[in-house]
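Q: Can someone sanity-check these two? First one:
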Amino acid sequence: MVDQGTTAIPHANPANPLDHLASRRVALVHEWFGATGGSENVFRQISDLLPHAERFVLWKDHDATEPNLRESWLSRTPLRHTKAGALPMMPLVWRTLSRERFDVVISSSHAFAHTVQLGSPEQTRYLSYVHSPARYVWSPDFDGRGSSPLLALPRRILQSADVRLSRHVHSYAANSQEVRARIARYWRRDAVVINPPVDVDYFASAPAADQGQTRDYLLGMGRWIPYKNFDLIIQIADAAGLPVVIAGSGPEEAALRRAAERVRVPVTFEVRPSKERLRQLYWGARALLFPVHEDFGIIPVEAQACGTPVVGLRRGGLLETVVDGETGFLVDSLDPRSFVPPVHQLRELSPDRVRAHAAGFSEQQFAARMAAWIADALR
């Protein structure tokens, strides 16, 4: 049976509801820390709420410049270079992280960080913000790294360990309704939903020259890997008869460039655009194409902050970030022809309405909801 928990976010008090934690020992815990990424940004935002907290990570990537991160002993082994290889060791690492004891431990988890223990559950309060239960352990249909039949037994072992070693967690928060449902299905626990922070102020405040663009192309943005469906984005643009810009980077680049040669519309590749360039691309696009099932999806919110509607799948995070028929259009099929009618209806949408919707996912909103959840969970 699913544990019953608070699902509504209480309103934060005008005074900082976390002031009382200044005199308590607090630890913040994250998985591996890369140079960029949505989960890393969540960890930074939580750190800003609790600046006196000790911060622990499995390891920090060599190109990550984040200061004051305490790395685990796993960082001193060759396993730091292979996330898949390190996975079976992670539960052990989180239980042997430090001999120090803390009053409050808050984890930012997309693998096993929520299993960390830095004090007995009777004396230490454990909270966990979950980006997703480990996809390669619980959802191999989403993540091919765990889909091999040879990994069926190891996955079952890790699933059992994941549940057993996380019973001490007092309160969960999920980054979306999609992830909340997985937490209930896999761990039999309830969770508060707190959507990740998006820098909507930056994307909304583009220079006048960027805002005055003619919006004459479609845009695909993200990591160029198979499940992101960038090949489908190219096909959608071809079916709609509109140019498309493919922005990002990843191992599928060569395949996508070959796919671009087979269509009739212009396809432009923007490799690793800067944040400033990405803002320009959002403001110049007629729509962001997002035919992918994501847990949440920060990119669609960034696009909407620029007044750019989203055309994507009626699944996962888009059900929370896009208002169908108002800030974009949601499609039920992966047939590229199904996306053509919505693309031709984009002129009916109000850019002001699109931007206003994105404001609900701001960093300020995240901070208020996160602080309220932590304060409520510690009562």
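And here is the second, same format, sequence then tokens:
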Amino acid sequence: MTATATRPQPAPANAGRSGKRPPKRERQGAAWVFLSPWVLGASVLTLLPMAVSLYLSFTNYDMFNDPSWVGFRNYVQMFTEDPRYWRSVTSTLTYVVIAVPLQLALALAVALALKSVKRGKGFYRSAFYAPSLLGASMSIALVWRAVFNDGGTVDNMLSWFGLDIGGWINKPGWALLAVALLTVWQFGAPMVIFLAGLQQIPGELYEAAAMDGAGWWRQFRSITLPMLSPVLFFNLVLQTIQAFQVFTPAFAVSGGKGGPADSTLFYTLYLYDRGFTASHMGYASAMAWVLLAAIGIVTAVLFRTSRSWVFYANDDNEEAR
């Protein structure tokens, strides 16, 4: 009689475990535990201040006495009785129209130049990005004021060419342009995003276009811009929102007054003046909510119009379906 050896069977992978997923409530509870720091921070630092600001926009509040309810009085005064408010709106819109296109155009031009650089691309990218880190500081804004002041660097350079403009910050037509140029100088962030988008465009497209006889401008217009349109749209929305909230350059260049002749009286600067200088915090809160609504409307318009000029890689596939 011979004994036959039996091969031991492997233990199940879930041996020693129940093999059951935890209940849905336990999974949700764990998720809320990990999300609780963000929820707490958003509630205390964002949602609660927004709710208080919305309430204050319907009150007369000077930060020293209890707020008194006035209904829509602040909004009515803003739109019908305050000429400086409308000058701040005009200055801000003019600044946005000048600064944003110039900044994006310069950022795209530098990104196109860096794309063809073979050596030291990391160094140039960091060097061009540095102004975006420094430009928002008060110290750089004060240096910018000195550069464009009467007898400053720009004034002396223009005098060599026979252009006697004088100090830019002392002239209503030139002060806003000086502030806009400070924003244009901070083109590093959109430049890096443009450069990343350019590197995603297949080189075969340019090779095929070159074989068909397309020149540089035709390739840029027919290949680069359409393929880069999602990145261009992203930068346009981001920089437009930031431009509506500009404060530090205007405050430094005008000394916090928005001059000369309210040419640099940007919306946020006037909001600061009403809230913290004149102690009309209820009025300033109403201005803040109007600004939020205006940014939301402008962003919605940009998204709506983007359907006619922004092209995504899967658009053709979706249309085919």
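A (reply): Looked at the second one. The chain is about 70% helix and 0% strand. The chain has one domain: 82-320.
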